[in-house]
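Incident review: delayed structure delivery

Summary: a single-chain prediction request sat in the queue longer than the usual turnaround. Root cause was a stuck worker, restarted by the on-call engineer. No data loss occurred. The affected request and its eventual output are reproduced below so the record is complete for anyone auditing the incident later.

Affected input:
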Amino acid sequence: MAENQENESANAAEPTAAAKSRATRSQKVGTVSSDKMTNTVVVRVDRLVRHRKYRRYVRRTSKFMAHDELGATIGDKVRIVETRPLSARKRWRVIEIVQKAAK
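Output delivered after worker restart:
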């Protein structure tokens, strides 16, 4: 009987170990450029890339559709995290509003 309890406690510990072994999810910080959809915002993420020929930095922009339950509005700076596919184009989730837009 004691062996069964040890096996059950070992089995109960397995899901938490699996959750800890999951890879860290990618995070990005960007600006909300559209909030016209329900529970969805479009986040614009800017990055600087060095030009191969001219060796100057060029700004590149990527747009991500993100699930938003926090109520971010246009101009807010938000942190998004990678998640499972939520729709055809949504693979990101808003986890924090870093800075609210100036009114």
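Verification: The beta strands are 27-37, 40-50, 57-67, 77-82, 90-99.
Action items: add queue-age alerting; document worker restart procedure.
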